Model the fold of this input.
Amino acid sequence: MKSYNNLPSQQHQVQRLADQFNADERLWQSLEGKRKRRRELGPRMPEKRHTQLDQLDFAKARPPQDCIGVEIPSGQPPYGDGKS
Done:
């Protein structure tokens, strides 16, 4: 886990999210060749199915998200808006 000692404490979570986004973007770009090959080999497959397979490959390749130590602001329900 990266250290963000040079940032104000309020910005640590935002920077973690930005780092996660950048890592996901690098992973998505690395899978580009696989997506192109799939479209060349299966041209009659519907685009929706190609997209589903792309997302499945991405989910398999993505490491689990680190969620330990994330604070939930007080006064807010942990999931959704609390209205069910």
